[in-house]
Every structure is written in C-alpha cells, then in structure tokens.
Amino acid sequence: MKKLGWFLMSILPVAVMLAVQFAGTVILTVWYMVRYGVTDGAQMVLDNVMAVMVITQIMTLFITGLWYYFGVYRQRKEKGEGEKSSFSGKSLGGIFCFAIGSQCLVGLLLLIWSMVSPGQIEAYNQMIEDSGIGELTVLAAVATVIMAPVGEEIVCRGLTVEYLKRTGAGFWVINVVQALFFGIMHLNLVQGVYAFFVGLMCGYIVLKYRNLLASIFFHAVFNAYSTFVTPVEEALEAANPTVFYIGYLIAGIALFLLGSRLMKKDLEREESGRLPGTGIGI
User: Fold this and answer.
1) Residue 154: which of 281, 4, 19 has the closest Cα?
2) How is the chain split into domains, by residue range?
3) What are the tens digits of pLDDT across the range 60-115?
C-alpha cells in the first residue's frame, strides 16, 4: 500500500500543474471580460495567448517550486540524505551536444510523421502558430527557453521522479513512467509523443547526474534550438530540401552520439573518483 501511495503522489505534481494553468487561464479570461466586456475581453485573451501562458507558468513555478524546496530539497538536507551530484561545468559540453542531436532526431521523427499523416502535423503546426509559440518574440523566448524548462523539470524530473524513487521502482521503470506523464501533460498527440522521448532523455540525465540543473540545462538548450534555429532551418530547407535533410540527419546522429559519448566519459570520471562532485543535487 505504501508503494501505491507514493505512485499516486507521483501523479499529483502533474495534476497540480495542469490545474493551476487551467485555473489561471480562466481567472485571467474572466478578468479581461469583466474589465473590457465579454466580446472584447475574450478577443484580448486570444490576442495575448503568450502573455497569459507566461503568467500561468509563473503561478505554476511559484507553487511547485515551493513544493519541491520544502517537500524534497530541504528534507534531504535536514536528514542528510542528499545524493552526491555528478554534474559540473565539465558536463555542459556533452549535455549540449546531446540536446542538439536530440532536437535534430525529433525533427526527423516529425518529418516522417508528416509524410505518414500530414493532417495531424498540419493541425499541430496550426495550434503552435495560433498560440504564438512559433513566433520569435521576447515572450515566446521567455516561455519556451526559461519558464518551461525550469517549471516542467521541477514537476516531472524533480517531484515526480522523487516520488517514483520512493516506490522502490528500478531506473527504467521510473524513467519511462515520468516520461509518460510528461507526454500526457502536453495534452495533444503530436507534442505528447515527442515530449515522451524528450522526457526519457531528461529523466536519464537527471537520474544519472543526480542533479535537476543537468536536465534543466538539457531542456533549455533543446527548446532554445527550436525557438532560435528553426527559422534558419526552414530557409535552408526551402533552398535545397535534399541537401538539407541529408546534412540534418548526419549532423543529428553525429551530435547525439558525440553527446552520449561525452556524458558517458564524464560520468565514468565521477564514478572513478577523479572528478569531484558538486554536492547535493537540487
């Protein structure tokens, strides 16, 4: 029964995150409608989707951040149960390459998906465009490169992974379950599928390095690539699709393998005791 209780607790952070974001959106929508009228208020919400998203992300981060600090981090320190982290400045290069390679491979996955089921990808792209995430704006950058990596990592790789550990489950059970929650959390099929794979990578990193900063860094680089580099890729693709896709595949695989190799060497140095750890992982 105790294991079941911890498993149910692992679901709660995701449920709270979704509930806070939903409630925040409703509250802001009602506020706009009361202040500007139903029609104009509703239109203003649609015109400011990105701003509403950032506000609800801040609300979520405030609640789940306090939850993680008092419910996990502070308890570990008080009990002296903190795990020694393998994450250091030397880890950044490998994680960076791994993140860029992962972004390329996810892009190829979506390309194949668009060939098999173009309607689903078109609907997804339209949703991204309507939300404003696809536009290169300050708010979009804040939402995707800062708020999402920090907030989502605290929820899924911080709280959820911690509670799954307390069930006594093994490495891959923990990783797959938290990645599944991460995919479901995105509430649409296309983003949910590739978020599952990204979740596996983030989970692997946080479980191996034993530091939430490692997966936050991976997540931030992954999202930053999508936000800042994708427009350049689209121009290159339009100029010569064949050359672009061949180069994209080669670069993606090479960076993914290079990142994997660098992280493996980094972790092996830590395990051998030649690289000092950075203390208790947050």
Assistant:
1) 281
2) 2-272
3) 999 999 999 998 888 888 777 666 788 888 899 999 999 999 998 998 888 888 88
